[in-house]
Amino acid sequence: MTDTSGLLDPELDAMAEREAIAPAPTMWQTVRHEVFHRPATRIALAVVVIFVLVAAFAPWIAPYDPLQQSFLAINQTPNAAHWLGTDQFGRDVLSRLIHGSRNSLIFGLLSPVFAAVIGTTLGVSAGYFGGVVDRVVSRVIDMLMAFPELLLAILVAAALGGSFWNIVIVLTVAFTPGFARVARASTLAVKQEPYVEAAMAAGVRTPVIIARHVVPNILAPIVVLMTLWSASSIRIEATLSFLGIGTQPPNPSWGNIIRDGLNNMFATQWPILSGGLAITVVVLSISLIGDAVRDVLDPEAG
Amino acid sequence: MSVLIEVEGLGKTFHDTSARLGPRRPPVRAVDGVSFQVMRGEVLAVVGESGCGKSTLGRLLLHLIEPSEGRVVIDGQDMSTMGAAARRQMRRQVQMVFQDPFGSLSPRRSIADIVAEPLDAFGLSGSRRARRETVADLLRMVGLPAAYMDRKPRQFSGGQRQRIGIARAISVDPSFIVADEPVSALDVSIQAQIINLMQDLQREKGFAYLFIAHDLAVVRHIADRVAVMYLGRIVEIGGKDQVYGAPHHPYTEALLSAAPEARPGRRSGRIVLQGDVPSPSRVPSGCAFRTRCPLATELCARETPPLVEVEPGRLAACHFASAFPITRRRNAA
């Protein structure tokens, strides 16, 4: 399992003793080595970066106005003028995809990150402190978990209206219980570790123990959960848009493009294909990055 | 020699606090009315079978577990009446070495971070460079090359990890270290090295140990005084030579007779205890040891023998403490 060769070699030990005390390897060096030695991870990271750049510079990159309709050019297959064809209103699919990436990526990344931060905070507090904190947090989590996230989203949208930030809040609330559950269970396990007791005995403050010993050790499942939810969140945004609560037509989002294309599937498949492919590629890339990060966070695997 | 640690009537009862339905499990009396003193620079060994409460006792001393009753006075300051902040400051004086050399070092952190953890906690590590120098010194002190400091615990063997744990404990120059079975998880060949290291450091730095062990041979080497525990109580406490030479409690006698003897034929007769240790949730009435004691009478079931002085500096809790030693008596008979 572990490499112990050389540890008992007196010559090596002597060499190690003579060696000057080198400066500690920086955080960045460790991350660079652990994350980037796999080509798949490098490609995935490049893909996500490209998508983010495309979203950021959408108005300059998109060849057409995504809302501009043209009766003369409906349901076109890919051609020199429209690389991914046009939809039933003659709108350029590529332009809609590029503009849609803004909504989809923001939804896909923002809600899971918010939910992870809030859920982990709640779960770690409940698991570490136990007692009343644990009971209150656990009951609230149970209550939230009783609602499917979509139903929750519709409830909040009905109460507050379907603005962008409302949807982000709804998805955050919907995802939080999952993170809290995982964080609480992992914290309970980590809290039993002798090194946590050792830190207490050494006189380390509780917030430092949580930040230094508990959180890093429960981060692996949280990160994996985050990549899973980012896919779900792009998907749920699409559903909400279909129900008229998410991104409002004619504004594009990837989910929206697929929904629109579905009604027109037999005339042209290109909106569905491109929207679906975009979601797949981004979600796959995020998952790959998530895997790499998890491996870095797992001390025994590195 | 001045008193460093004073323990008075320390007790801990664990209650079943689980939220499940159904009847609660009976409370477990892990430590019961334990009192003793540790002098500055002294090594007090606590021995007993597993489950006798010796590890709980160690944790009570550090207030890692809140005692149910009694108090711990460290260097004249009562831990139980202290606020959380003062108690944390106290931890600078009192450090701990753990039994499990694998679990007690965070797998994620470098050796330097682990060793410097108490220093960091009390803001004593200084600049980045000073910290590395300090860690290097500490590692050399425990017999590890300083250049190993950026490695992770998984690259070390059990004995090496225990050295790291010791370096961590001595980093803040404590006056007292609780060593909870520090060698019982190690290979026999490594045990002696670690014991010697711990002894050398103790002599050099002058701190006191509460040395918890279940191995009498280990204790004999390092201890100044020995306390024998049975079912949460101290049954005998005294100087090492006194306790080992002529035990005044049948349990001590049985423990000693169970230890392997290096010279064959020297053994005068082994006392084999019958049965298991009773559950600490159902401690027998009177003397807790009576269910397995060869000397037990009706008196023992009725009255708990108090821990009384049988010789200067020597206490035993047995109605028949004066009738000892048994082995010799039996051989004479």
TrEMBL record, chain A:
It comes from the Bacteria. Keywords: Cell membrane, Membrane, Transmembrane, Transmembrane helix, Transport. Residues 101-290 form the ABC transmembrane type-1 domain. It is a multi-pass membrane protein. InterPro entries: BP-dependent_transpt_permease, MetI-like, MetI-like_sf, OppC_N. The chain crosses the membrane at residues 43-62, 105-130, 150-175, 214-232, 270-289. GO terms for cellular component: plasma membrane. GO terms for biological process: transmembrane transport. It is found in: Cell membrane. Pfam families: BPD_transp_1 (PF00528), OppC_N (PF12911). Belongs to the binding-protein-dependent transport system permease family. This is Peptide/nickel transport system permease protein. It comes from Palleronia aestuarii.
TrEMBL record, chain B:
Its main location: membrane. It is a peripheral membrane protein. Gene3D superfamilies: P-loop containing nucleotide triphosphate hydrolases. Coiled coil: none annotated. It comes from Palleronia aestuarii. It is found in: Cell inner membrane. The keyword Transport applies. This is Peptide/nickel transport system ATP-binding protein/oligopeptide transport system ATP-binding protein. Keywords: ATP-binding, Nucleotide-binding, Transport. It comes from the Bacteria. Residues 5-256 form the ABC transporter domain. Belongs to the ABC transporter superfamily. GO terms for biological process: peptide transport; transmembrane transport. PROSITE patterns: ABC_TRANSPORTER_1, ABC_TRANSPORTER_2. One of its GO terms (molecular function) is ATP hydrolysis activity. One of its GO terms (cellular component) is plasma membrane.
